[in-house]
């Protein structure tokens, strides 16, 4: 891991080979604060083959927790070592707080690009909610700009179906960001399904969203004109091939007035 982007005080927590001791794999449990939910099976198998040939070259980081050790850093090496049939693994034991554990896990995965955009956003949110950090403080810890953190967090405002597609790699973050500028979740999902159906590029998605927003502006302008002309609430709902105009009235007298206006009669 590159040292430059480490948060303040975290560099000293990263394990070195000189500090390592062999610890039985059966005594180590995966950490509960690990932000990465998925591990690429193909990459894991490749690492397991390498470990069979050369062993584990970089130690993992653990902390003592009851009778066992909790894995903090090196989850892929841990899983690959088990897959390779190893009985023990070089590990460094350190006393760490929950926040330090989460920060180290996030930094490791972000720098190795092992987190998908949703996992990364959820990890940042956990740092903010569980440990009371601001966006600026999170940015400082993980070596990124505050705007990058803010943009990642915005992805959590997407409907669950779109977040899952982003996690599964069906769409990219470039597809997801424009969808966030649409007004409703219904609009987001409608555009999302069209994106999947046509397998369109990010550029085409940006153009699609722009057209939708331009139509929204046009419809809003027409609504305001009708409200001014009729003196009551008017809502236009526009679909792909058809739409409807809703004109509201709040009494029988108002209904009669509106009917006369629509027939071109003077009030």
Write the layout of secondary structure elements.
Blueprint: E1 21-24, E2 28-29, H1 41-54, E3 60-65, E4 68-73, H2 75-83, E5 88-93, H3 98-111, H4 117-131, H5 135-142, H6 146-154, H7 160-167, H8 173-179, H9 185-198, H10 202-230, E6 234-238, E7 243-247, H11 252-262
Parallel strand pairs: 2-4, 3-5
Antiparallel strand pairs: 1-5, 3-4, 6-7
General description of the model:
With 267 residues, this protein is α/β, with parallel strands linked by helices. It has two domains: 11-157, Conserved hypothetical protein from pyrococcus furiosus pfu- 392566-001, ParB domain; 160-262, Arc Repressor Mutant, subunit A (Orthogonal Bundle), CATH 1.10.10. It is built from eleven helices and seven strands. A five-stranded mixed sheet has the order 1-5-3-4-2. A hairpin with a 2-residue loop joins strand 3 and strand 4 (68-73). Helix 1 (41-54) crosses helix 2 (75-83), helix 5 (135-142) packs across helix 6 (146-154) and helix 8 packs parallel to helix 10 (202-230). The radius of gyration is 27 Å and the shape is elongated. It starts with 20 loop residues before the first strand and ends in a 5-residue tail after the last helix.
């Amino acid at each position: 891991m590159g040292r430059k982007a480490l948060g303040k005080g975290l560099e000293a927590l990263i394990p070195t080979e000189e500090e390592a001791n062999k610890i039985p794999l059966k005594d180590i449990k995966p950490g509960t604060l690990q932000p990465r939910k998925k591990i690429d099976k193909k990459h894991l198998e490749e690492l397991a083959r390498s470990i069979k040939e050369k062993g584990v070259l970089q130690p993992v980081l653990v902390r003592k927790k009851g009778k066992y050790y909790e894995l903090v850093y090196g989850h892929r090496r841990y899983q690959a070592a088990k897959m390779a049939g190893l009985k023990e693994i070089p590990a460094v034991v350190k006393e760490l707080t929950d926040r330090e554990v989460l920060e180290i896990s996030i930094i490791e995965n972000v720098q190795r690009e092992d987190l998908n955009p949703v996992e990364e956003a959820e990890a940042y949110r956990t740092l903010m909610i569980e440990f009371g950090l601001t966006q600026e403080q999170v940015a400082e810890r993980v070596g990124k700009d505050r705007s990058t953190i803010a943009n990642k967090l915005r992805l959590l405002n997407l409907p669950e179906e779109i977040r899952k597609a982003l996690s599964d790699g069906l769409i990219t973050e470039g597809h997801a960001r424009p969808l966030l500028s649409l007004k409703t979740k219904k609009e987001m999902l409608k555009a999302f399904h069209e994106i999947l159906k046509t397998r369109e590029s990010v550029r085409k998605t940006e153009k699609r969203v722009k057209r939708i927003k331009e139509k929204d502006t046009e419809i809003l302008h027409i609504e305001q004109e009708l409200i001014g002309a009729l003196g009551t609430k008017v809502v236009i709902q526009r679909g792909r091939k058809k739409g409807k105009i809703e004109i509201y009235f709040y009494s029988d007298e108002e209904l009669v007035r509106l009917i006369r206006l629509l027939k071109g009669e003077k009030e």
